[in-house]
Amino acid sequence: MTLPLSKKYQPMETRPATELPAGAEWQYEPKWDGFRCLAFRDAERVDLQSKSGKPLTRYFPELIAALKALKSNKFVLDGEIVIPVSGSLSFDDLLMRIHPAASRILKLSQQSPSVLIVFDLLVDEKGRSLVNLPLRDRRKALQAFVNKYLDEDGTIRLSPTTDDIAIARKWFRMGVGLDGIMAKRVDLPYQPGERTGMQKIKKQRTADCVVGGFRYLEKKPLVGSLLLGLYNDKGLLDHVGFCSSIHDEDRLALTKKLKAMIKPPGFTGKTPGGLSRWSTKHSLEWEPLNNKLVLEVQFDHFTGGRFRHGTRFLRWRPEKSPRQCTMTQVQRESSSALELL
Predict the structure, then answer these.
(1) 110 and 17: one domain?
(2) Are 297 and 238 in contact (CB under 8 A)?
(3) What is the separation of C-alpha 150 from the centre of its chain, rounded to a whole number of angstroms?
(4) Looking at the domain assignment, is residue 339 inside a domain?
(5) Which of 113, 237, 303, 317 is the most buried (most CB within 10 A)?
(6) Tens digit of each residue's pLDDT (9 = 90 or more) over 14-26
(7) Residue among 174, 136, 153 nearest 30 (CA)
(8) What are the E-state strand segments in 223-270?
(9) DSSP 8-state class, residue 327
């Protein structure tokens, strides 16, 4: 029995870097703010696979239809799934697609259709594996594939590339939709699961936040995480996320300091959410604080009124007024990465 294509190919991984590498061996691409995806076509079968190997097929019926409509019955494409909304890219709309109800997914696919931005070709239309070819040759094959098979409806689009580091730096400064820049070695083959030939340079963003409360560790009466707040345009302090990057040697002194500052309500706008299925009641109980402490944190994404992931503590900001900690800090630039497509 022949293995399906999805069992033969896995995504190439990336290595974090702090600056763009220079040299003729490097190619630069936008790092899109979406779901990494391998798209497989084998006759009438089309599959979408996430970076971790999980199936994404059922969540994006409009992409399946677009891939089936291509006049090529065999290929493997590497790319990123994004959802354009009002001239920008919405990660929140992507998250909404991971839903158990097929009817809900279908409705969302019609209301806010997704786009597959492709940047590599692993199997061509003749079924030939290209993974052993250097990237410069795979890119030429991808460009030829796009020119021959992609139509103009925009559901599948080609990601731009450049070998000019000045252009890559310009892309890096763009606003909504870009998560940074990818730097790829043009002289290396595709290396599934490896990180040697591809680097990601992510945008580093910071914000000053009010500490509106804290949670204890699960099994110790010591501070486990700080609850962060930003003032909205109505002057209310909204809970926007947490910071748990506290050094163990600092926990006792910090706990004593925070306990002396406990005072309701902590947050005057949105408050910390309820229980999740992964957390116990104790782990999500929180203590409110008077709004005096300000700290600076580093974050990667702010969507849906909160930091998407936990933030990293940088420093305390005693010189900052809590009222200076507003939502304007996390607003993205007006330019959209969709201008690149």
Answers:
(1) yes
(2) no
(3) 26
(4) no
(5) 237
(6) 888 889 999 999 9
(7) 174
(8) 223-231, 237-243
(9) G
